[in-house]
Amino acid sequence: QWPDVPATVDPDAAHPRAVQMAEAMREGSCTFRDLIGSGFTSAEITEHYPEAKALAASLSVRQVSPGADLLADMAVKAKAAIVNHKPMPKGTADTQALYLAWGRYCAARNAHVVDPWAGQRERCLDLLRAYFQATTAGPAVTEHVVRAVAEVLEARH
Asked: What pLDDT, on the 0 to 100 scale, is given for residue 29?
C-alpha cells in the first residue's frame, strides 16, 4: 500500500512537512485517515509518508540506561547484597571488574548469613570497600555505605 520506507532519514535534511508528519505519527496518527485528520493533504501524505515513517521510527528508538544511584540507594543496595543490583555512583563505568568485585561482596554476605562470626563480618566490609574503590565514589560515600552495612551485620551477630 505504501512505497518502500527508507532505512534512515537525516532529521536535518528532511522536508519540514515530513518532520511534522513524523511528529503526528509519534503521537498516534498512523493511518491515512488519522493523517488527514491531523491536517495533511492526500498529496502531502503520498509524497512525504515514507520519509516521515522512517523519521518517526528513528526518533522513537532510544537507548535508556539507568541513572546513578543516590547515597541512600547505594546503602539500601549494599544492605540487600543482591548480585544483579549493585550500587552505581555517578560516572562509574559498568565493567566486568565491577561485577566481579560486587559478586565477591555478595558471596561474603551470604557466607555471613550462614556463619555470622566477627572475621566474616570484617571480610564483608573489606570487600565492600574494595568494590567502592573500583567506582568513582569518594571515601566519604564509601564509609557512609560501609557504616550502614556494618550496623546491619552487627544486628545479626
From this structure: 82
Residue 102's H or E segment, with its range, is: helix 96-114
Lookup: cell for 26 = 509519534
Degrees to nearest 5, angle at CA 56 with 54 and 57: 65
Residue 152 host element (H or E): helix 139-156
Rounded CA gap, 49 and 30, in Å? 10
Give Cβ neighbours of residue 54 (< 8 Å, ≥ 6 apart). 5, 6, 7, 8, 9
pLDDT at res. 5: 44
- State how far Cα 143 lies from the chain centre: 26
14 DSSP assignment: S
Count the Cβ atoms, other than its own, within 10 Å of residue 83: 12
Give me the average pLDDT of each 10-residue run along the chain (157 residues). 48 81 87 91 92 84 70 94 93 92 96 91 96 95 96 82
pLDDT of residue 11: 54
- In angstroms, the Cα distances linking 80 to 54, 61, 83, 101 are 44, 34, 9, 16
